[in-house]
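Researcher: We plan to redesign the surface later, but first we want a full-length starting point. Tokens attached.
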């Protein structure tokens, strides 16, 4: 297909562009990966694509197609244009526990779907949670399956991976781990959504990891004074040090803070947004797929669009990577 494109993100190994199919005017995000960058990493991209082709969920960014040229692989992804989680919270004028609870419910539902299929995300964090659109009631979407893993029969996960601050204690302890690592990460995200700062923090990674290994965190005053005991109980179950005792997604979805009426409606926006701006500077956030402004102006701001790019006509069959040739 022939497309016009605008760059959204330039990473270490790939470029993400916003593309419009001229015939249908449909917008998508295309991850352009040089084949040279794949040398020695073929298994990683194979795994990511294998995962993406298995999943179809309303709260997960989908892979729509795959193409290749002589020099690149192109992953055509569903476009999400509502911006990053923290951006939207800061922009809100009113934000409550109930809002946080509804966000976590969507994440739990999507991760339960993954776990039921034997898929572990392994890198859940706020940067990978994006709003589908700019609508006030837009759903949240999970993205970035680069570290995800399909559990095989009898296989054991033990590779240390993830993002410091969100990784579970058993991963840092270099013990075999399971899908419970995702539930820990959801607990960390829940904590941040209610106070605006992370439960574990230290400039020194060794000290940070020591906190996580001990599962040492507090509900500090005054930031947690107006947060319900139910919310704190939910977090304690999700951030349980022992993965065998930690809540599963199914158990978490049945907690009254998620499915009941214990989440408070008091406005906590001022406190939470102030802490988010203080502790999560924009320069630290990943920008991939944050296409809001570009989507808004793409059709009217002709100057933003470069020359049309010819795109391969035929989608690649799956699987294809066993015969992948790098240059």
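Model: Full-length starting sequence:
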């Amino acid at each position: 297909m022939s497309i016009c494109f605008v760059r959204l993100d330039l990473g270490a190994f790939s470029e993400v562009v916003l593309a419009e199919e001229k015939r249908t005017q449909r917008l998508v995000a295309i991850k352009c990966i040089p084949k040279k960058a794949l040398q020695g990493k073929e298994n990683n991209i194979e795994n990511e694509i294998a995962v993406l082709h298995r999943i179809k969920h309303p709260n997960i960014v989908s892979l729509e197609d795959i193409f290749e040229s002589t020099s690149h692989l192109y992953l055509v992804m569903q476009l999400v244009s509502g911006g990053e989680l923290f951006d939207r919270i800061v922009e809100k004028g009113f934000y409550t526990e109930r809002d946080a609870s509804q966000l976590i419910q969507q994440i739990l539902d999507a991760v339960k779907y993954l776990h039921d299929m034997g898929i572990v995300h392994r890198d859940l964090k706020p940067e990978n949670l994006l709003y589908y659109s700019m609508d006030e009631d837009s759903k949240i979407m999970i993205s970035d399956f680069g570290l995800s893993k399909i559990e095989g029969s009898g296989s054991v996960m033990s590779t240390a991976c993830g993002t410091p601050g969100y990784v579970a204690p058993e991963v840092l302890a270099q013990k075999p781990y399971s899908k419970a690592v995702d539930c820990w990460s959801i607990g960390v995200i829940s904590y941040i959504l209610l106070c605006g700062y992370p439960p574990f923090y230290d400039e020194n990674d060794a000290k940070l990891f020591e906190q996580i290994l001990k599962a040492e965190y507090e509900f500090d005053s005054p930031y947690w004074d107006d947060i319900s005991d139910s919310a704190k109980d939910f977090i304690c179950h999700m951030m349980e040090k022992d993965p065998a005792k930690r809540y599963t997604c199914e158990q978490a979805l049945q907690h009254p803070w998620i499915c009941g009426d214990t989440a408070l409606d008091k406005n906590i926006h001022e406190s939470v947004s102030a802490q988010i701006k203080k502790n999560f500077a924009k320069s630290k956030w990943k920008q991939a797929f944050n296409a809001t402004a570009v989507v808004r102006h793409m059709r009217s701001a002709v100057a933003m669009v470069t020359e049309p790019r010819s795109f391969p006509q035929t989608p690649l069959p799956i699987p294809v990577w066993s015969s992948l040739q790098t240059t």
